[in-house]
Amino acid sequence: MAEATIWSVGGYAPPYIVTNDMLTTRMDTSDEWIRTRTGIRERRTAGPDETTATVSATAAQAALDAYGFNADDLDWVVVCTDTPEMWSPATACFVQEAIGARRASAIDLTGGCAGFLQTLQLLSPLAASGKRMLVIGTELLTHALNWRDRATAVLFGDGSGAFLLGSSDDADGIRIGPGLSRSDGSQADILGKPYGGTRYRITPELVQQGEMHTIRMEGPKVFKHAVTLMSEIGKTLLSQAALTAEQIDWVVPHQANQRIIDAVAHQVGFRMDQVFSHVAHYANTGSASIGLALADMLEQKLIAPGQKLLSVAFGAGFSWASQLFVVNRIPASRFLHAGEILGDAWGWDT
Ligand code: UT7
């Protein structure tokens, strides 16, 4: 039976680098605090002319170019994001136009930091059935931060990761194996970007406070739930697939905080040399995190045929997910990450 397969991977980390030291000129924080509490050293921010759609299109085009795939042959373009181009229409429509996927249907999905894995699980049956699709996880989270909230503002970055998906009948790459995902809407208030929707409308007062479109988070509660629920869903998937931690070659966790990654690895029973992390350089890129990690791993040639990968993710909702991947053949990939510009590209007065 045909299975959903990742034919190629594209990654894009925008070129502006903001180091922890640079943040200290804007808020009461320190490189030492950020590094020891999160493992983060720097993050990327999009340039002044970049938006969620352009950043998504760059990663999407990287995946298409890596494979040599004609955008005209795409059936679906799906963007997974919590920081969309605009409220309506879907960011994916702008991406579809930019890459010239003239026959494709385009739609967005929103699921927080677990959204990319949830999206893969939702779309895998379509890919297995022969639909060819681009699934792009993108966030411009630095555009949604309250720079007066030091506990949150230091954690996030911008980026995009794109998978070209199809059926294992047509070409080979990384098979999308079994996955699990869950949500608990009773925790919706703990982490999110509440304003601007229909519940909390933007008012002149909110605009004046500069908080109408920023992320709010109860960090310690998120930390605790992230560790418990990612460990639990990772263990459950391993047990359902009759695999032990030892049989997994790489853990590709959502890149939020090195302490969370370490704690999950410890609780599930992984050695740290099984775990991929680049949170030090890219920080938390939400829906982009897993795609960006895979693009980086492929560029570093860490992945080999026959390997089994386990991803776990947790984020707003709360939603959390785990996903197994099996490398049949190394997929084509392109990771664009030239960080040439030290500094931020846009105003900080949000
Ligand atoms: O994808 C899911 C998205 N979210 C996450 O993954 C985040 C999950 N949470 C976390 O990663 C951690 O909770 C944080 C990194 C956000 C915070 O770390 P913590 O060890 O839980 O610190 P805390 O919130 O308990 O704060 C400890 C102290 C406080 O000072 P006092 O009250 O002890 O004097 C904070 O005010 O650290 C202070 N603090 C800071 N100090 C310097 C908070 N943020 C900062 C900062 N710089 N940026």
What would your notes on this structure say?
With 350 residues, the protein is an alpha/beta fold. The protein contains 11 helices and 15 strands. It has helices spanning 20-23, 31-38, 52-67, 91-99, 115-128, 150-153, 204-209, 219-240, 258-268, 279-282, 289-299; strands at 4-12, 16-19, 42-45, 76-80, 105-109, 133-140, 158-167, 174-183, 191-192, 216-217, 250-253, 308-315, 319-327, 332-336, 341-342. The longest helix has 22 residues, at 219-240. The mean pLDDT is 94. Oxa(dethia)-CoA is lined by residues 29, 33-34, 37-38, 113, 150-151, 154-155, 217, 219-220, 222-223, 226, 256-257, 260, 284, 314-315. Oxa(dethia)-CoA binds at residues 29, 33-34, 37-38, 113, 150-151, 154-155, 217, 219-220, 222-223, 226, 256-257, 260, 284, 314-315.
| Alpha-beta content class | alpha/beta
Taking the alpha carbons of the first and last residues, their distance comes to: 51 Å
CATH architecture of the largest domain: 3-Layer(aba) Sandwich
Largest sheet: 10 strands, mixed
Shape: globular
CATH topology type of the largest domain: Peroxisomal Thiolase, Chain A, domain 1
The CATH class of the largest domain: Alpha Beta
- The number of helical runs is 11
Q: What is the H level of CATH, i.e. the homologous superfamily of the largest domain?
A: Thiolase/Chalcone synthase
Rounded to an integer, what's the Rg over CA atoms?
19 Å
Mean pLDDT: 94
- Helicity range: 25-40%
How much beta, percentage-wise?
15-25%
